[in-house]
Amino acid sequence: MAPDPNPALDESSSLSAVAQAIVTPLTRAAIFLVVTINSDPGSREVIRSFCADLSGLVRAVDFRDIEGGLSCVMGFGSDAWQRLFGNPRPANLHPFREIRSGTRHAVSTPGDLLFHIRAKRMDLCFELATLIMARVGSVVTTVDEVHGFRYFDDRDLLGFVDGTENPRAQAATDAAIIGAEDPAFAQGSYVVVQKYLHDLDGWNALSTETQERIIGRTKLADVELDDAVKPTFAHSALNTIEENGVEVKILRDNMPFGRAGSAEFGTYFIGYSRAPRRIELMLENMFIGRPPGNYDRILDFSHAVTGNLFFVPSATFLDNVTPENEADAAPPPAAPSPEAPPTASTPVKPAPSVAPQKDGSLGIGSLKGDIDHE
Fold first, then answer.
1. Which of 80, 97, 222, 262 has the most neighbouring CB atoms within 10 Å?
2. Numbers of helices and strands, H then E, in the chain
3. pLDDT in tens, 49-75
4. Over 50: is that where the pLDDT of 367 sits?
5. Is 189:272 a contact under the CB 8 Å cutoff?
6. Active site residues
7. Distance between CA 12 and CA 250 in Å, rounded?
8. What is the rounded CA–CA span in Å between residue 66 and residue 58?
9. CB–CB of 179/186 below 8 Å?
């Protein structure tokens, strides 16, 4: 299809665009909603029309408790972007790349749209999710919905503080928000989500000392182990990456979830980055190992059951999307095919050069979600 005439795609306007609510104070509750777009006639027009209305829905619910901290981030999968908007495309948008190594598998699962809804209260999240589905529910199919919560002093269900190394203030913006490297999509971001389920019986059978060696931090005080005693397979060690000799970060807002009656206990990993390759390198370190075979031992007790990569355009972009008659639109070109999934025998491509950041680590289990990281 022809390039979208959306003014948000103009380079000069994109550089002054406003980001969605990515870098915000962390909250006590969240809903993670992933849907696919149905192939029914008119689905495309409904979703495009909804884009510009999302901010109004958020304001309507937020006004009912202006101290509730309600926000919603909307992201688009690779195929969905092509169907809805065509070209130009965000420079690094592609389907989530699954990873297989031995019994470890970072799965790739269906997902066209992500709604990351956050607030201090779950009722605000639920109300907004209900309004969103009232608008688009007839043209989408829900493939995953997770209600997350903060657990005591920001711990995951494995018992460790989750989010200690999350960047704050300007460092968070530098880690998550696209700048001049892709000017047509400045103020956008990439986000990877994975739903991990934990074998708590197996994990709790380990000694505290063994758990600490796997995570790389002390369990009670949340102090990082000294490099002299921290194993190279520790979660915190494998999720520290460098680009051009500089340690870089991503921005995470992981949350525990679960159903006690069904013995379902998990962590919903969500990581924002201005370059998805950063997160992909962290996942390769976890699942394949650095070097191969030296994998993250947390995966002996946790397994991923979902995996998606989405592009989060700026709020300016969403506000300027207009409805379009699908019958009048030419068929969009096919989205780029994903590369072969990495395996233990597949050489890992070097990360592309990006603007150096300050420092960073991924953490599903060693990440503390401070309530305010700005």
1. 80
2. 10, 14
3. 999 999 999 999 999 999 999 999 999
4. no
5. yes
6. 162
7. 27
8. 11
9. yes
Element (H, E) at 286: helix 276-287
- In angstroms, the CA 363 to CA 356 distance is 20
Neighbouring C-alpha atoms within 13 Å toward the C-beta of 66: 1
For tokens 């001049």, what's the residue?
180
The Cα 341–Cα 303 span in angstroms is: 17
pLDDT score recorded for residue 244 = 85
- Determine the Cα–Cα distance for residues 176 and 190; give it in Å rounded to an integer: 8
Could you tell me the sign of the dihedral formed by the alpha carbons of 141, 144, 147, 150, in that order? negative
Question: Strand, helix or coil at 30?
Answer: strand
Q: Does the pLDDT at position 165 exceed 90?
A: no
DSSP class of 150: -
228, exposed or middle or buried, with CB in 10 Å at 0-12, 13-18, 19+? exposed
Q: How far apart are CA 194 and CA 308, in angstroms?
A: 7
Q: Give which of 56, 44, 71, 51 is closest to 6, Cα–Cα.
A: 51
Contacts within 8 Å (CB) and 24+ apart, 101-105: 101/287, 101/288, 101/289, 101/292, 101/295, 101/343, 101/344, 102/295, 102/344, 104/287, 104/295, 104/299, 104/303, 105/287, 105/303, 105/304
Grade residue 242 by pLDDT with cuts at 50, 70 and 90.
confident
DSSP per-residue codes, 155-217: B-TTSSB--TT---HHHHHHHHS--TTSGGGTT-EEEEEEEEEE-HHHHHTS-HHHHHHHHTB
Phi, psi of 261 (to 5 degrees): -65, -25
Residue 332's closest CA among 9, 78, 95? 78
pTM listed for this prediction: 0.85
Tokens encoding 92: 């690094």
- Sign of the CA dihedral running 139, 184, 309, 33: negative
Supply the DSSP symbol for 346: S
End-to-end CA distance of the chain: 40
